[in-house]
Design the sequence.
């Protein structure tokens, strides 16, 4: 599985709007045939910091996700909310494998 771990820091005044926009992206992404997981996580000790944990069947499915209307809507909406530019790491799942 192809995994993406995104690190996001949001300006304090935009946290609720970020959560709302991310909920829409989450609801739509989990409907994509190549997506296996899409979690939006918030750090307990730093409530303006978020992580996205995304799992796709392969890199092609992730790239297809990045071409969807809901991804573009999320990206364009949350860009001004960022305290710093978001960063992403690409990983390969070792366990569990295979995913259900």
Sequence:
């Amino acid at each position: 599985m192809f995994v993406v771990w995104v690190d996001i820091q949001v300006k304090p005044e935009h946290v609720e709007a970020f959560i709302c926009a991310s909920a829409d992206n989450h609801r739509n992404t989990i409907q994509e045939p190549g997506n296996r997981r899409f979690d939006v996580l918030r750090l307990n000790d730093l409530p303006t910091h978020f992580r996205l944990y995304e799992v796709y069947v392969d890199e092609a499915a992730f790239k297809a996700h990045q071409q969807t209307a809901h991804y573009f809507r999320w990206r364009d909406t949350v860009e001004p909310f960022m305290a710093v530019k978001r960063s992403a790491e690409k990983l390969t799942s070792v366990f569990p494998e295979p995913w259900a």
About this structure: Residues 5 and 53 are 5 Å apart (CA to CA). The mean pLDDT is 95.
